[in-house]
Amino acid sequence: MQLDPVTLEILNNKVAAITEEMCLTLQRTGRTLYVKETADFACALAGADGRFFAYPRSIGVSGFVGLECAPTIAAVEAMTGPLQPGDVILTNDPYLSKGLATHLPDLHMIEPYFHEGRIVAWGWCFVHCSDVGGRVPSSISPMNTEIFQEGLRIPPVRLMRGGEMVPEVRAFLDANSRTPEANMGDIRAMLAALSAGRRRVEQVVAQHGADVLVQASTDLVALAGKKARAVIASMPEGDYSFSDYLDDDAVSDLPVRLALKMTLKDGGVCLDFTGSDPQVQAAMNIPSHGRPHSWLTLRVLALVSTLDPSVPLNAGLLNPVSIIAPEGTIVNPLLPAATGVRHAAAVRVNDLLNGAFGLALPEALPAASSGTIIPVVVTEADGRGGRNVQVVEPMIGGTGGRFGHDGVDGRDSGISNLANNPVETVEAELGVSFLSYALRPDSGGAGKWRGGAGMALTFRIEREGSFVLARGMERLKFRPWGREGGSPGAPAALIVNEGRADERRLGKIDMLPVKRGDTVTFLTPGAGGYGNPFERTPEAVLRDLRAGLVSPAAAEADYGVILHEGAVNEAATLARRAAAPAPEGRIDFGPERRNWDGVFDAALMDGFNAALLARPAGTRSSLRTAALRAALGALPEGFPRQAASAAEAKAARAALQGVMADA
Amino acid sequence: MAEASGQLPDGRGVRVGIDVGGTFTDFVLHDPAAGRLVFFKEPSTPDEPSRALLQGLSTLLTREGIAFDQVGALMHGTTIGLNAIIQRKGAKIGLIVSRGFRDILEIARCRMPSSFDLHADKETPLVPRDRVVELNARLNSDGSLAAAPDAAEIAALGEALRAMDLDAAALVTLNGYLDPAFEEDLAAQIAEASGLEISAAAVIWPEIREYERALVACLNAYIQPLMHRYFDGLIAGLSQMGVSAPVLVTASNGGSLSVASARARPVETVLSGPASGVMAAVRLAEAARATGDLTGQGIVTFDMGGTSSDIAIAGGATPELATRTDIGGLPLVLPVVDVSAIGAGGGSVVWVDPHGLLKVGPQSAGAAPGPVCYGRGGTAPAVTDCYLTLGYIDPAGFLGGRMQLDAPAAEAALAQIGGKLGYEGSPRDIAARTAEGALAVTTAGMASALYKTLAERGLDPRGFALMPFGGAGPTHASRLAEETGIRHVIVPPAAGTFCAQGAAGADLRRDFVRSFRLDVTPDLTAALSAAFAALEGEAALWLDAENGTTRPRRFERAADMRYHGQAYELRVRLEGDLSAGAARAAFEAEHKRIYGFADPQGRIAIGTIRLAAIGPADPLLPPKLTSGGEAAPKGHRPLWLKDRWHEAAVWRRAALAPGLSLSGPAVIEQDDTTTILLPGWSARVDEAGNLHLERLTDAA
User: Fold this and answer.
1) Site from B106, B109, B110, B352 to mutate, A interface, most A CB atoms within 10 angstroms
2) What predicted TM-score, i.e. pTM, was given to this entire model?
3) CATH no., domain B4-84+238-269
């Protein structure tokens, strides 16, 4: 580091404040719900290498600090020459921006900040806009199989040239959105944010000099890197393997495997995703380009920041991280893989890292969080010939039980810390009535420290011709796992007309047509518990019971607490608990995953995926489907909710290998 | 009821403003007949705050020769409610909600306080889940009745509430904001069935957003029993003393309320302390503007105390009001004087992190052990130690000489920090360089926060004057001004008792809201006029009942407006006529001011309308300047500026007469604070006793 400790601390403070000021400007100027209520945007400053040296801590999407601007800038300059003052780059394409954008509704902008003819910093911002065209309103659906169904791809281009909007670019944008006016409002807000950043950067340059700013941009990243390395060096070295599953890939009922071998060594961490599934024919691929991409490294950021809260929030946090993500897998897909609901897979990647780090540091990491983020959307006729598309609520669950603490009920900032929508504003804007928006009792995994409760949302449709969209529904099959003796959380469910004669229990949905008077109930999963639930203090169980979060039946069955007239029967509880065997193993994935692993163990699946990756890219998906179909054909109906016998498991493995051998 | 002399404020009675702080209870006595303004401090009695209040009042009145029954009004702010909320030591309350929404407080707005802390917890709800009860009661989104409980259900609810052994309860129904009468009626039924006082959300604050509205009701119920006890005790004590004057309670919106109003809605008073200080600054600024001593867009107040610093912005005769404040980790949507924390205070600790960066705060040495120089066992140097080491403050003159400071100890502690930074030279110079660096870090942090606060409003600090108060405000003000490009600093005469002064001059004020929810179309005028007329009727009744002012009352109208598709609303003042054209013009002007553009084709919706009812108080007369102008400093002392020692003149504030002009570097001392005048700045005193610091040359 070059700058003195006082100047560096001053610049550290100033540049972070600039990014927050940019965010405040964007939030105040933006016009859509994504910007205003759910804060699905961010702003930052990047240095000469295109990595962020300043990132906001208290506003906007927290996780994108690892994104890289350099490939986008290079693409524009290669096409149309060096950037000039007043130019602003726009892109939304995960492939051509090399992972700066990760799905098409996210509009990303980059502006060079000049001082005396030289670029001293880059301003960056992104907004999740309402719609960029494509097959479905709001542009993202898990059922999209190619990015070409997901809307307009905007390659890195100049949106602004010399301070003026390029009319051709604007014409393309307007023609390819269901909501061009709202998009342009968001674009104006982004430009306002970039201008605010530019003015403030100019001021820092005037006060401290351009050289000091440029030096600070590398020093601050180096500082964060040094601190992150110190944190990781304090962890026990070794290899830690973990795997987890997505229920399915939305276009079939076949589970999707994510596997990780994490190596901690010499203050660095290598995340090797070899063994993860090939890219899927659904919209949940993570376009990482094999880099330590934000969507693959969020848990590292959270862990380092938890263990050393003083680390500046910038790209340096990822300096100690290296990645192995084989091309053509779900964590490093090739064109034309769809990426719209990449966060659904990222949520599971977060679980994967959480699991692996937890093996190294059992007291620092929680059990699995609920592991799903579902922006529940309703679309209805707006009475003026168009359609009204609104988020009802972004549904999440809770966080996992932790050493010494219960998980958090109904909140989870693991992927993004989005705010919900007030029920009253939704009812004022949309033809739905909320019947209930609540925590979900008995959903949090039992444990010495209980997993956070999931949520239960029920609303009634009040207009004909409405549709319900719910992207990112997960953990309906494979539960959020418990740790160190804790139990898994309850799985998710979606029920139409619950408790009525025409009740329907559905799995994942794309666009669900609903009738006026129908009720729709989303139950999000509970998070995993931590530690043996029979060691939970009876007082804590009684507290949950009185709060209505744990039922009397669960108190007895899951916690061994016997109640008598509203109080704990201590003798009976003691006896009941003494008779219970201690939980086995460090991770409890729940019965579905146990049944699955009983047939498809880690070695088999590692080999299977290696064999698939050896085939030509175009053939992998159909081969994988055929092999798994053959294997499942040998297994009982309802597997993995139903267990397989040893003979069935053997037959399934043989079928799987048979298909691979024949191909 | 009050005698004529007790009526408020008719310009004849004596008014006493009182601010109960953690260390001192401050008094400002205004006696218009004798033309005097007196400041007084009494050590606080935190175990029973009214004791210090009564004791101090008695001492002050006796000292000033004022008969107890001559007092016309007491204006009083208290932090009891705020402390109870922050420490979660309020009443045992229940919450009644619409069926299906028992978890309204647990879910809140779904955000965690921190995204990057795996060990973080959410805020503790004011009402635990087992004391939240659901009721078949809600409205539809068009205001029509969706469900109402029958008598049997109310009776059962009453039983359930009684069984919980509560002190009070809050009520919130879904869409209840559309028709406050619905909840008012329900609350009456529940109160009768349960024997509890019920705070109904839609009655106190009928604004859309159920969680935030529920919190208003919960906070109200949570502090109400406590506040009742306090007010009852205070009134009884005063009456025993022979003071029969009406007590007015200062409110978070910068105004004041009768005790009766404060008993009904104590939640309106929780942030009155900082609000009073800001109001005093605003009044002082308006007076200075009238005499031509203040020009430009307005003031930024700068209150620097022991643990933190706060700013507020006032463009004119009223400060900015916020409608989303954080209070003990909970959002409060009532209008409050918008005070933003911007960083360190005098007790903030100076330290070096493991990677060699110089840091200031957020830990504070507090009052005990306090900074090293207090000699109370503190070993970590704080910002105050930096002032001392740099020569900003006199070790023998702190708190008017009541407390001797240990300068060598402060210097040694800072020199030790400087060693970790690799500084070389004499210990004294190392300590000074360290202190200078720490103040630079502190100032940069404050300036960044100040920029953000102004940027949210689309304002530029360079158009504003800075008005510092609090113990360290004037000491640090010119550094902050220099850093932010502010060219004018106004140091008020009694910077240490500013909140009490604000209380003494507080207007009666209450804010009202109603849901409106119509688009701006040509036939808007009738509906909007009718809605405001209804609110003004309600407001007039309130002002009448406060038995207050004889001066002409004032109503300020505003509306929350947005373009269709926007999810946030802008609050727009509506002055003059209520036509669609005027409403559109006002909205577009505000939109342009804040966002830089307006959309002449955009459909505009009005959500909530707002009315402020104000009963103005008489202005406080400025104190007469008594001291003569000996045009000479009391001495000189070395002052470290930037990178070396300078010899600076030291002046007594009381010795500065109007007309005298000083240039920096200089130190200006008064009992409760010290003002630093930097090189490149001049200082003068105006007729009202304000000290003006002005930048002579262009800032770097």
Assistant:
1) B110
2) 0.89
3) 3.30.420.40
